[in-house]
Amino acid sequence: MKRILIAAVCVAAPLSLLLACQPKAPPSPAKYNTDALDLKAFMANVVDPNSDALWAASGTDETAAGVKDNTPTTEAGWAAMRSQAAVLIEAGNMLQLPGRPREPEADFDKFAQQLTAQAILVKAAVDKRDKQAIYDEGAKLYLICTACHTKYLINPLIKAGGRPQGTLPNWPADIAAKQKQYVAIHGPAPEPAKVPQPDDPTKK
Q1: Does residue 108 contact residue 152 with C-beta atoms inside 8 Å?
Q2: pLDDT in tens, 43-56
Q3: Are 85 and 93 in contact (CB under 8 A)?
Q4: Please, are residues 54 and 122 in contact by the beta-carbon 8 Å criterion?
Q5: Nearest residue to 178 (alpha-carbon basis) of 141, 140, 139, 144
Q6: pLDDT reported for residue 77
Q7: Are 178 and 139 in contact (CB under 8 A)?
Q8: Residues contacting 110, CB < 8 A, separation 6+
Q9: Which of 74, 143, 172, 197, by CA, is between 20 and 30 Å from 191?
Q10: What is the C-alpha separation between 131 and 134, in angstroms, rounded?
């Protein structure tokens, strides 16, 4: 009797309720494909170009003609910088996908989480168009990147007998100059000990 009544209600109901009567399909299981972009390819095609572009669009450069301000001057420039910061926020998440972390995974994941948390602060500065905050937070992002590279690229290469030709390209000259300037003013930063939580970008 109950089945007959339920069927009658579904037949007489409007389309929206009729759809609700249909059994829900089970959610598709999550699938990850990290083979198409292994860690080296992911860094070269996603992380490096976006971080390099973001750093290049901040701070100033000393030139023969005087001081050059690298801050965006157009809406398109600001939009590009915002997108670069957003990509780095998600890059920290994607670096933790199965198949990407290197051993020890806990340390690798910590660096990835720091990347996301710091990129959130960079994006907040971009949203405010705060030139000094963009530079300062971007420099902190750079230090996180270099600390991770030291642990997972440079130190292993040294232990293996040196740096094989072409395996670890130098930073672009303008970015290296900015980092040198920042360290000269603020001093070298130790490896971050605490991971700021992505849901609270005010914690540093």
Answers
A1: yes
A2: 999 999 999 999 99
A3: no
A4: yes
A5: 139
A6: 97
A7: yes
A8: 195
A9: 172
A10: 5
* Cis-peptide into 104, omega within 30 deg: yes
Helix 105-128, helix 75-94: angle, nearest 10: 160
Coil/strand/helix, residue 96: coil
Q: Which two tokens stand for residue 9?
A: 């209600």
pTM of the model: 0.69
Give the residue carrying structure tokens 């293996």.
Answer: 160
Scan for tokens 């930063």, then name that residue. Answer: 189
How many whole angstroms separate alpha carbon 180 and alpha carbon 175? 9
Q: How many helices (H) and strands (E) does the chain have?
A: 9, 2
- Cα-trace Rg, the chain: 24
Place of tokens 């690798």: 108
Encode pLDDT of 103-148 as tens digits: 999 999 999 999 999 999 999 999 999 999 999 999 999 999 999 9
CA-angle at 196, arms to 191 and 198, nearest 5°: 135
Measured distance CA(86)–CA(88) in Å, rounded: 5
